[in-house]
């Protein structure tokens, strides 16, 4: 029987186990440049089968929060090289989550103080994170976006391609395309945020067009075996909404089946919230989604996330419901989570007050178990 603690090869990437650190925004990279503290944080957690970095902006336009890292400045790529070197020296594997926030941004964070961009000029009922004049951080309402012109989309696709190449050149083992949680690619997918009347709006095929153009560009640049994607069929995060998620995301995974991707990452339910959250008239059927992916010929590893504990994770892999399980808050508080899960030891509780912004406190100062029984 397959175990959560068994090794696994996902595309071109060999993992020591099936326990994954989920992408976690921490707002500790001023100027969008990863630093030595970030390197220490990821190195501490390198025993994970796979580390997925916090969401990382592919461009200045794709930057939606203060002090999150990017992949678009030379100094940022040098910073990421420190991180990947430290993780690899510790025996770990790491991919970067590539992010364009779309409308989940603020004028003050955008190039020349411009409006954030989106499929349509529909403001999200959501917040973003800014640094105040006194240096403190706080969440603020997102700004009114402008609708992207169709002729701007090739430039965004090129930004994804360029960022993927830069990521591999900075030592990452691969990339995860952020198509979840109400950010740009998810904004195009969901009818609640996409009212376009051109070939990028209306039908499911049209709303998924940009996503597949991005997947094409990245897999052609770095190979499908180093390319993964994250989706969140029913999350309400960042005001994301679609009344018919099952046919929408069935179409998406059937299209993804055409690529030999490394993995597909599924957020089950509301991100960081109820696993049984529902959008539309019927509960989302995750088993049917995976079956549709396999029926379409999909072979990528299936990664699940959101509210998993030790028992749920072990069962999911042993029962063949998932190949990998991603943990967020548990990895924030337990750098040695793999050993703790393996030995069913006590877990440090996460400190919510230090999730976003700040320094080492609540970031690199969580204790490890010196001698695991
Ligand atoms: C990148 C995020 C996501 O995917 O939800 C995020 C951003 C800010 C705070 C928490 C999470």
List the helices and strands and how they pair.
Blueprint (H helix, E strand, L loop, with lengths): L7 E3 L2 E3 L3 E3 L14 H9 L5 E8 L16 H16 L4 E6 L17 E2 L8 E5 L5 E5 L4 E2 L5 H17 L4 E5 L5 H6 L14 H4 L1 H14 L4 E5 L13 H12 L6 E5 L18 H10 L5 E5 L4 H9 L5 E4 L1 H5 L3 H7 L30
Parallel strand pairs: 3-4, 3-14, 4-5, 5-10, 6-9, 10-11, 11-12, 12-13, 13-14
Antiparallel strand pairs: 1-2, 7-8
Helix pairs in contact: 1-2, 3-6, 7-8
Bound molecules: 2-Phenylacrylic acid.
What attributes does this structure have?
373 residues, alpha/beta, TIM Barrel, 8-stranded parallel barrel, two-stranded antiparallel ribbon, binds 2-Phenylacrylic acid, Oye-like, EC 1.3.1.-, oxidoreductase, FMN binding
Report on the architecture of this protein:
By secondary structure, the chain is of the alpha/beta class. The protein has one domain (8-372): Alpha-Beta Barrel (TIM Barrel), CATH 3.20.20.70. The protein is built from 11 helices and 14 strands. It has helices spanning 36-44, 74-89, 153-169, 184-189, 204-207, 209-222, 245-256, 286-295, 310-318, 329-333, 337-343; strands at 8-10, 13-15, 19-21, 50-57, 94-99, 117-118, 127-131, 137-141, 146-147, 174-178, 227-231, 263-267, 301-305, 324-327. Strands 3-4-5-10-11-12-13-14 form an 8-stranded parallel β-barrel, surrounded by 4 helices. Helix 1 packs parallel to helix 2, helix 3 packs parallel to helix 6 and helix 7 (245-256) packs parallel to helix 8 (286-295). The chain starts with 7 loop residues before the first strand and ends in a 30-residue tail after the last helix. Bound molecules: 2-Phenylacrylic acid. Residues 25, 55, 65, 181, 237, 271 line the site of 2-Phenylacrylic acid (8OZ).
């Amino acid at each position: 029987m397959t175990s959560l603690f068994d090794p696994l090869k996902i595309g071109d990437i060999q993992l020591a186990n099936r326990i994954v650190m989920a992408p976690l925004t921490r707002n500790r990279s001023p100027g969008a440049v990863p630093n030595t503290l970030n390197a220490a944080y990821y190195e501490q957690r390198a025993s994970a089968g796979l580390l997925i970095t916090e969401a990382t902006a592919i461009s200045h336009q794709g930057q939606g929060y203060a002090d999150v890292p990017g992949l678009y400045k030379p100094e940022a790529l040098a910073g990421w090289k420190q991180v990947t070197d430290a993780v690899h020296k510790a025996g770990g594997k790491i991919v970067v989550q590539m992010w364009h926030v779309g409308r989940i941004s603020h004028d003050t964070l955008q190039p020349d103080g411009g409006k954030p961009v989106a499929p349509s000029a529909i403001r999200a009922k959501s917040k973003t994170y800014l640094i105040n004049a006194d240096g403190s951080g706080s969440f603020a309402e997102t700004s009114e976006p402008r609708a992207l012109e169709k002729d701007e989309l090739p430039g965004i696709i090129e930004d994804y391609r360029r960022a993927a190449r830069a990521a591999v050149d900075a030592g990452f083992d691969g990339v995860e395309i952020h198509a979840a949680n109400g950010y740009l690619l998810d904004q195009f997918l969901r009818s609640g945020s996409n009212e376009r009347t051109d070939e990028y709006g209306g039908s499911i095929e049209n709303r998924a067009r940009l996503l597949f153009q991005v997947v094409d560009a990245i897999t052609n640049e770095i190979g499908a075996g180093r390319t993964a994607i994250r989706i969140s069929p029913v999350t309400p995060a960042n005001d994301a909404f679609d009344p018919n998620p099952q046919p929408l995301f069935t179409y998406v995974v059937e299209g993804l089946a055409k690529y030999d991707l490394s993995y597909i990452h599924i957020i089950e339910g509301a991100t960081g919230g109820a696993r049984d959250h529902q959008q539309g008239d019927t509960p989302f059927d995750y088993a049917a989604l995976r079956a549709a992916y396999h029926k379409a010929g999909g072979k990528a590893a299936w990664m699940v996330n959101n509210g998993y504990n030790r028992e749920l994770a072990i069962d999911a892999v042993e029962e063949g419901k998932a190949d990998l399980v991603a943990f967020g808050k548990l990895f924030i508080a337990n750098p040695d989570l793999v050993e703790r899960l393996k030995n069913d030891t006590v877990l440090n509780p996460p400190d919510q007050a230090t999730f976003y912004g700040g320094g080492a406190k609540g970031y690199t100062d969580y204790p490890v178990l010196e001698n695991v029984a």
